[in-house]
C-alpha cells in the first residue's frame, strides 16, 4: 500500500473513531469543572417525578376573558340561526387563543359556547366531567341581551 493510501486510511479512521473529550461526559458548572453525570441523571429523574401543577389554573383571569369576549361579540347583536353558527366558532377560537396566551403549562383546554334565542322560554345547560378536583378546574360566564343569550365555559384538565 502506498503512503498516500495509508495517510487517507489513517485520517478516515481518526474521523470515524473519535474519542469524546472529558467535558462531554458530564455537565459543566460555572467554575469550569465537570460534574458527575449520575447527579445530572438523578436531577432529571426527580424533575420527571413531580406530579401536579407548579402553578394553578387562573380561573378568575379566565372569567374576565369570557366576560370580555362574550360582551364584545354579542352586545349589539340580534339572534339569527346562520349567524350564531359562525359566531360560536369564532367565539370559541378567540377564547381558546386568549386563554393560551396566559401560558399555563400542561393544561389541556376544552372550550364550549352556546348561543340561543330569548323567546320567553327557560333553559338549563349542564355538563359532566371526570377529573381530579385537586388539579382540574373550570371557568364559566353567561351573557344576555334583548334577543339572545350566550354561555361560555372553559375546562382546564391537568395533563401529567
Automatic annotation (TrEMBL):
Query: What Pfam families does the record tag this protein with?
Result: Tctex-1
List GO molecular-function terms, semicolon-separated: dynein intermediate chain binding
Task: Please note every region of biased composition (Basic residues).
Answer: 8-17
Q: Where is this region: Disordered?
A: 1-31
CDD domains the UniProt entry points to: DLC-like_TCTEX1D1
Task: Give the coiled coil ranges.
Answer: none
Q: Which family does it belong to?
A: Belongs to the dynein light chain Tctex-type family.
- Under which name does UniProt file this protein? Dynein light chain Tctex-type family member 5
